[in-house]
Each structure stands twice: as structure tokens, then as C-alpha cells.
Amino acid sequence: MRGLRDNGFTLLEAVIVLILGAILAVTLAPYLTTSMVHGIRPIEQFQDTLSIYKVMEHITADYEERRNTAWDNNTTVDLTAFRNAIGLAGTDQNNDYGVYSVLANGFIQFNASNTEQSSSTTEILKVTIADASGVRVTSIFTDR
Predict the structure, then answer these.
(1) How far from chain centre, in Å, is Cα 15?
(2) Within its chain, how far is the Cα of 57 from the centroid?
(3) Alpha-carbon radius of gyration of the chain
(4) Among residues 27, 69, 77, 113, which one has the fewest Cβ atoms lying within 10 Å of its Cβ?
(5) C-beta separation of 125 from 82 below 8 A
(6) How far apart are CA 33 and CA 55, in angstroms?
(7) Cβ atoms of 141 and 82 closer than 8 Å
(8) Any residues with CB less than 8 A from the CB of 83 and at least 6 apart, and which?
(9) Has this prediction a pTM greater than 0.90?
């Protein structure tokens, strides 16, 4: 009479476990690879956003310096020179501020209903910049 063996798994049991593992791996592979490949995209978008905000911070720091100088000299900020330093609308820039595209860079005013419109006066400057991925940042600067 044959007794029960307690030596481990039979070859058939091992093969069945391997087959089930392979089926599970093939079923889950598309989901796991997609999440791994696209998992870095939010981090890249966040870095892009930070880089364009850093450029705008450099532009704002330059404006603050110009404003403080104007304040010390009891004059107004030369927004025309500041606008020229930023670059013309529709141009790509790589300067001390950083790497960016200028989408809008012009003087504006607000009418009685608080609607923005173009202006020939140089009291308010509206600047919109973007990075290569399309993240946009807009700031408004005044001559006072």
C-alpha cells in the first residue's frame, strides 16, 4: 500500500500555478505598463508650470527693481523700456529672464464697464508668456 507523500508539490501542480501566473501577468501587463509610462507625465507638467512661473518671477523682480529706482528718483516706471526688455508679442525669448514665448505684451486700459481694451497710454502693461508645453502666465504692471 502506498502512503501519502509530504515531500512538496507535484509537477502537475507546479505547471498549473505557472500557467495561472502567466495568464494573470498577460492580463495585467497593459494596465501596469500604461500607468508606469504615463505616471511621470504629471510630474513633468508640474515642472513645466514651475519653470514658467520662475520666468515670470524674474520679470516681476526686474519690474520691482525698476519701480524702486523710479520711486527713489520721484518718477514713474518706464514701461516702454520694460516692455522691450520682455520682448515683442509673438516672439520666443531666451534671455536673463529665462526661456519663454511672449503671447501678449502691450498697453491696456479699462473702460467705464471695467472691460480691458488696447491703449495708446503707457500706464498699464499686460504681459502674457508661455512655455513650450503651453502653460500660460499673465501679469499686469503699472507705471506707479
Answers:
(1) 51
(2) 14
(3) 31
(4) 113
(5) yes
(6) 35
(7) yes
(8) 105, 106, 107, 125, 127
(9) no
H-only helix segments in 39-95: 41-72, 79-86
Specify the pLDDT at position 6. Answer: 63
Amino acid occupying residue 50: L
Q: What does the alpha-carbon distance between residue 15 and residue 121 come to, in Å, rounded to a whole number?
A: 82
Contact between residue 48 and residue 135 where contact means Cβ atoms under 8 Å apart: yes
Q: Which three cell numbers mark 26? A: 498577460
Cell 498577460, residue located: 26
When pLDDT is averaged across residues 60-77 and rounded to a whole number, the result is: 94
Q: Residue 83: what residue type?
A: R
In sequence order, which residues have a C-beta less than 8 Å from that of residue 37 and are 6 or more positions away? none
